[in-house]
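Hey, quick one: can you model this chain's 3D structure?
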Amino acid sequence: MSDKVLAPETLLKQRKHAQKTAADKAAEKVANKKANRQKRQVIFKRAEQYVKEYRQIERSEVRLRRQAKQTGNFFVPAQPKLAFVIRTKGINKIAPKPRKVLQLLRLLQINNGVFIRLTYATTQMLQIITPYAAW
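Sure thing. Here's the predicted structure for all 135 residues.
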């Protein structure tokens, strides 16, 4: 008789499968780590590009302002394109026109806020609801 005790077939299969999945997970982890490192580098480069772009815009505004002052003109800075509007007053005693504008801007409750692209029309609407909202 042999002194070796053989393990059951199912247990051997389970061990083999567990080793294979562990090796697959380790390989996947290494691949994910490498991919994440590359993604971080791309994100960092993109952030640097944004910083560079914003600095360039800021410098050009300063340059234009100085140039206008030097020639005796006025520099008019660019108007904002986006506004955050928040409703500050409740529903009581609001005239129909401001109420309709508040509905159009989806400001239905107090303390609701929305981002709005500023155009001539939206600026006029904001003028109508100035007593009921802040922006």
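One thing worth noting: The longest strand covers residues 82-87.
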